[in-house]
Target: Type I toxin-antitoxin system Ibs family toxin
Amino acid sequence: MKAVMMVTKLVVVTRVIVLVMIMVMMLIS
Model:
């Protein structure tokens, strides 16, 4: 169970980072 929670947290964090990167790229360009 703990492993699943860790994986889900990592997936959420990576998705947030990707969204932030896209926002930054849009703002720059």
